Amino acid sequence: MKSTEGLPKSRREIVLQFAADNYKTNPEYLWASAPEYAVLRHQDNKKWYAIIMNVPRERLGLSGKEYIDILDIKADPVMVGSLLMENGILPAYHMNKGNWITVLLDGTVDDGMIFFLLDRSFELTASKKKLKTMNRSEKQEWIVPANPKYYDIEKAFKENEIIMWKQSNNIAVGDIVYLYVAAPYSAIRYKCEAVETDIPYKYEDENVSMRHVMKIKLLHKFDEGQLTFNELKEYGIRAIRGPRSVPQSLQNKIKELCKEK
């Protein structure tokens, strides 16, 4: 039996705290022979979405015989191949290698990526009832790119609190839309609500093509220096080329910022 005490840079407690804060999950320690193994599972369907283990490095094909904390989580099978190319992400240990992966908790993988992968594993293992609740009983939240070279959004919101924006098929009335403004800001600058969607609108130039638009209402403007691209990377967001959903961990951070304001 090996204790986790003294292991360098282990993110074990940070992961457990994240699960408690975001999913209301308490770890379960199921094996007397491995008291440091912590299982995280859904309350309703009892499916595991993660397990933290403490195993010898050599069992993972790594150099050295010391023990290391790892996190096994479920992943989208189409993403497994690309994820395995990332430092600190390995084929699943004692789980199905087609749709589970192992993440080293020694600091090799940054916390933002870990939280992003945990969010995804939680969704992949959730019950249909839970998914339905997650997906549409509450507003969806999206990050949408905006390029100030093509459209003066600052001026637009000074003139009107409701403006027209290119429609994404996934965005519905009531959803929250965060506008990520490219350089020189490179940050989320505006929190908006979609108040009308699927409005027919034909426009095309060398930069953009639109067939439908939506109306978005300004709810909050973030200060410069907040929610920059470097900070978003901590939440697993590496690129913003089109509308994308907001990880739960980032939603929580944004709510804190809005409360402070």
Q: Give the neighbour order of strands across the main sheet.
A: 7-10-9-8-6-11
Share of helix, binned: 25-40%
The number of distinct β-strands equals 11
Query: What structural class do helix, strand and pairing data support?
Result: alpha+beta
Order of helices and strands: HEEEHEEHHEHEEEEHEH
Give Rg in angstroms: 21 Å
Largest sheet: 6 strands, mixed
- End-to-end distance: 49 Å
Mean pLDDT: 86
Could you please describe the fold and organization of this structure?
The chain is an alpha+beta fold. Helices cover 26% and strands 30% of the residues. The chain has helices at residues 12-23, 77-83, 111-124, 128-137, 153-159, 229-233, 248-260, and strands spanning 38-41, 48-56, 67-74, 89-91, 100-104, 141-146, 162-166, 176-181, 187-204, 209-221, 244-245. Helix 1 crosses helix 3. The longest helix has 14 residues, at 111-124. Residues 1-8 have low confidence and may be disordered.
Write the layout of secondary structure elements.
Layout: H1 12-23, E1 38-41, E2 48-56, E3 67-74, H2 77-83, E4 89-91, E5 100-104, H3 111-124, H4 128-137, E6 141-146, H5 153-159, E7 162-166, E8 176-181, E9 187-204, E10 209-221, H6 229-233, E11 244-245, H7 248-260
Parallel strand pairs: 6-8
Antiparallel strand pairs: 1-2, 2-3, 3-5, 4-5, 6-11, 7-10, 8-9, 9-10
